[in-house]
Amino acid sequence: MPNGDSELTCQMTFLKGGPLPPLLKQIPVCLLEPTTPGFIKINFDGSLTHSIAASGYILRDWTGKVLKLGAANYGQSFVLVAEARALRDGVRVASQAGFTSLCIEGDNHTVIQALQGTISVPWKISTILEDVRTWPQ
After folding, report:
1. I need a surface site. Which of 11, 58, 70, 125 has the fewest CB within 10 A?
2. Quick one: pLDDT band at residue 135, thresholds 50, 70, 90?
3. Residues spanned by the domain of 70
4. Domain count of the chain?
5. Residue 72 half-sphere exposure, CB side, CA atoms within 13 Å?
């Protein structure tokens, strides 16, 4: 759950056949609210314990029904990479399942800001976020 300024979430909407805005600069913010009817929400998160990174994602419909979920252990890595990989894993699964209208929500400021284009994409996650940008198209 968001706790003041320490967490930030974002929403991205991918419509089949529609181009994404340059660097996703115009992404509105949503805070743990149900998504719009017809959309699928992806919540993602990463963690790091003793230099071991893990992450997970969950896909829900607009009623809150769980559609898909997943988790992964990435071994020695960085939490930033785990967060970005969780996002990519969720988007990949959603795309493979045929979902084209997505709301994406996460709590890592760097991943969110990089998606929004408000900061330069850190090199550690640049290829991961490029995957996220191209999968839904």
Report:
1. 70
2. confident
3. 4-134
4. 1
5. 17
Q: Which residue has the tokens 């969950």?
A: 58
pTM of the predicted model as reported, rounded to 2 decimal places = 0.74
State mean pLDDT over 112-129.
Answer: 91
What does residue 102 show for φ and ψ, rounded to 5 degrees?
-120, 145
Tens digits of residue pLDDT in 15-57 = 433 444 444 444 444 445 667 888 999 999 999 999 899 999 9
Three-class secondary structure of residue 132 per DSSP: helix
Tell the residue number behind the tokens 């209208």, with chain if given: 101
CB 103 within 8 A of CB 63: no
DSSP state of 118: S
DSSP one-letter code for 32: S
Amino acid making up residue 48: L
